[in-house]
Design the sequence.
C-alpha cells in the first residue's frame, strides 16, 4: 500500500516498508543473526574451498572466505549445493576495493535460484556480522554475481536498513 514515498508490504516476516529517496530504495528488515556453526561436509565439497568462518542463520549457511577474489571467482557445484542442509548458502569476504566493505554471493538451488543477482535478505545477516567485525554501522556491500549490485547496509538494533538502486523491468496497474 503506497503511503507518500513509502510502500508497505505485509510479508511472512512481518511488515516490510520500502522508501524511495532520490532514486535509492531503502528497505527495513528484521535482523537475522548467524551463529557460528560447524561446516557440514557437503558445504565444503560444494564450494571447493576451505572457509575461514561458517555460521548458520534461520535458513542459510553463511561462509566467510579469505578474500574477495575467492568469493567473486567461486564456482560452486550446484548438485553438491543441493545436499547442504537449509535453504541456501551466503558466501562473503572483506573487500580489497576501498569503495566496499565486503562482497558476497548467494546460492539457492533448492529454491530454484542457482545464484541470486542481488539479495537484500542476505544483508539481514551480513550487515550485523560485518558491523561487529569491522566496527562500523554504515556498510557498503558489493554482490559480485554476474549482474552484480551495490548495497548500503545500516544495521541498528534488531533492524537492518538496506538501500540500493533499482531498474524498472515491468510497470502496470491493478484494478
Sequence:
Amino acid at each position: 500500500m503506497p503511503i507518500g514515498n513509502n510502500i508497505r508490504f505485509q510479508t511472512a516476516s512481518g511488515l516490510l516498508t520500502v522508501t524511495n529517496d532520490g532514486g535509492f530504495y531503502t528497505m527495513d528488515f528484521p535482523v537475522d543473526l548467524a551463529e557460528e556453526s560447524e561446516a557440514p561436509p557437503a558445504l565444503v565439497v560444494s564450494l571447493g574451498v576451505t572457509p575461514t568462518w561458517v555460521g548458520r542463520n534461520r535458513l542459510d549457511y553463511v561462509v566467510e572466505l579469505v578474500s574477495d577474489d575467492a568469493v567473486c571467482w567461486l564456482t560452486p557445484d550446484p548438485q553438491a549445493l543441493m545436499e547442504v542442509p537449509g535453504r541456501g548458502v551466503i558466501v562473503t569476504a572483506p573487500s580489497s576495493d576501498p569503495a566496499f566493505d565486503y562482497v558476497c554471493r548467494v546460492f539457492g538451488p533448492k529454491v530454484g535460484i542457482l545464484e541470486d543477482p542481488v539479495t537484500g535478505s542476505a544483508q539481514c545477516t551480513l550487515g550485523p556480522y560485518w558491523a561487529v567485525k569491522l566496527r562500523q554501522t554504515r556498510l557498503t556491500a558489493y554482490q559480485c554475481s554476474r549482474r552484480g549490485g551495490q548495497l548500503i547496509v545500516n544495521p541498528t538494533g534488531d533492524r537492518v536498513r538496506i538501500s540500493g538502486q533499482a531498474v524498472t523491468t515491468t510497470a502496470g496497474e491493478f484494478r
Observations:
- Residues 55 and 104 are 14 Å apart (CA to CA).
- DSSP finds four helices and 13 strands in the chain.
- The longest strand covers residues 14-21.
